[in-house]
Amino acid sequence: MTKKLTWLFWGLSASCLSVPVLASALQTSLGTNGIDALRLHLPPYNLSGRKIAIGQVEIGRPGMFGWDKAVSKNRAISLAGIFLRNGPAKSNSGVDPHAYNVAGVMVSNDKAWPGVAPEARLYSSAVGSTKNMGQPEECLSAQHIALQNGGDVRAINFSFGEPLNRDPRPEAILDGNALLTLCIDWSSRVHDVVYAIAGNQGKGGIPIPTDNFNGVNVAFSSRREGIFNKVDVSNLAGASQGVTGRLAGKEFNIGNRRAINLVAPGSNIVLLNPDGKVNKVTGTSFAAPHVTATVALLQEFGDRQLRTKQPNWSIDSRRHQVMKAVLLNSADKLKDSGDGLRLGMTRTLIDKQNQDWLASDAYQDPKIPLDSQMGTGHLNAFRAYQQFSVGQWQPSTPVPAIGWDYRTVDMLAPVEYVLAKPLKGGSFVAITLTWDRLVELNDRNKNELYDVGDSFRDRGLNNLDLYLVKADAQNTDAGTVCSSISPIDSVEHIFCPIPADGNYKIRVQMRQQVNEATESYGLAWWTVPRG
User: Could you tell me if 49 and 296 are in contact, meaning their C-beta atoms sit under 8 angstroms apart?
Assistant: First the structure.
């Protein structure tokens, strides 16, 4: 039995590449062939993550210039704070190249190799040696990061995880009840932060906390003809690809709940090492920070809208449920042919068997919201900006073709959003609904903080359903065009073609109350109006 905590990276190797090759590699990760974030750095958007706090938790930490000798010749990464668990970091201790590479994806300010959000404020905590540390210390580290910047941290990156053979539970499985998994779901809600979790990878890997409900689990893509559009072969295959009884529940969530939410670039990503030399890295470790830092870009825009008191904006734009819905709903699935019917998507993403979204069980079965390998598709930062920038729209008045909302629903009445304009027949509609599993802290000393020795209580997941119905339909059965009705997931996702021109509405319904009587949710939609 191994006692070693494993990082999520594979095939890490230094490379000597020419400048043109490096520039090309960068373009495919942050440029139009990757997540299309570089466009947001430039006018008129001018988004770089400035003043937005994000976090990082790993075994080690990136080096900080002026504090650690390992980066004495390299100022590419500026850090807002470094810690050892929930205390100050020790100089020249715990510095780790892997953590530095992950940080570089997010906040590198090197002109040749910028990060996704180069001006974001990154707080990083090292859990430390795995010999005497485990999930309690990892939870403590995550909480400490969430409380930085005056308690205003918008997203936290996890590019590491725990193997099940280190979990103290007897016959541990991925049922959402590992301490670290419960901690992630608790912190998501209490600290209102998006957790981007590197998806499990390889066989016998590090599945905890990929069985979370409230975070965003990220798989990684590789290039075909220069474009990041294929789920990389070293991602762990989903249940539909022949999971053996030995692996079921060990590497995959029990009960068929899907583990992957989103795909992001992670193959041959070009980054700077602490010594300033160029490196190529591969793995879900480097996909997750693309998502974390994209949140910083969106949040900078949202705060700008709030500061200038723009209509259809409120502090609901900071909600983690909204961010999750926006990221998932704007993901690329099928390349648009130029007529806009596929929502302007920029690539067709394929899984390890070279099948696209239309071949997936998630497309064909309303009880399955997420593809086991692709989630809802490939991260596209610019499309996420387009989704988010339209603003918040309430169900009390007709809503535009694209938008988002944060609201509550109860068993007494569904919430309906009537689309202001008729939709175009043959066009696709994308709608994503996200909400939280309710995890509470068993707070022994009543200090409202997790302390080592504390535990969590899982109060379960209210069951919400999502429908697209004809606008004149009085009941769901009569007018449903598309639906997402999973009884087990914390996400519902619709991606379907509109059968004919006409007026439609979105319906959010609480199907079953499991914990509280009202449930807060994030909702994002993207449709194509007629004419």
Answer: yes
User: Hunting for tokens 């990060």 — which residue is that?
Assistant: 115
Q: What are the distances in angstroms from CA 164 to CA 158, 207, 439?
A: 17, 7, 21
The backbone torsions φ and ψ at residue 165, rounded to the nearest 5 degrees and listed phi first, read -75, -5
Q: Read off the pLDDT of residues 95-123 as tens digits, 9 standing for 90 and up.
A: 899 999 999 999 999 998 999 999 999 99
Query: Is 409 in contact with 508 (CB distance < 8 Å)?
Result: yes
Q: Is 146 exposed, middle or buried (0-12, 13-18, 19+ CB in 10 A)?
A: buried
Separation CA 332–CA 342 (nearest Å): 10
Is the preceding peptide bond at 118 cis, omega within 30 degrees of 0? Answer: no
Comparing CA positions, the residue from 378, 393, 366, 368 lying closest to residue 527 is: 393
Nearest to 431 by CA among 419, 449, 413, 440: 419
309-329 burial: b if 16+ Cβ within 10 Å, else e: eeebbeebbbbbbbbbbbbbb
Rg (CA), the chain: 22
Specify whether the CB–CB gap between 164 and 196 falls below 8 A. Answer: no
pLDDT tens-digit profile of 73-88? Answer: 788 999 999 999 999 9
- Inform me whether the pLDDT recorded for 291 exceeds 80: yes
pLDDT number for residue 22: 42
Looking at residue 460, its amino acid is: G
Place of tokens 């999930």: 135
DSSP state of 406: E
**Structure tokens belonging to residue 303:** 């705060």
The b-or-e profile of 95-133 (16+ CB within 10 A means b, else e) is bbbbbbbbbbbbbbebeebbbbbbbbbbbbbbbbebeeb
Rounded Cα gap, residues 93 and 61, in angstroms: 9
What is the Cα–Cα distance from 33 to 378, expressed in whole angstroms?
Answer: 11
Mean local confidence (pLDDT), 225-253: 70
CA dist list (Å): 459 to 3, 182, 434, 513: 31, 11, 17, 11
φ/ψ (deg, to 5) at 139? -65, -40
pLDDT in tens, 134-149: 999 999 999 999 999 9
CB-count exposure of residue 42 (10 Å: 0-12, 13-18, 19+): exposed
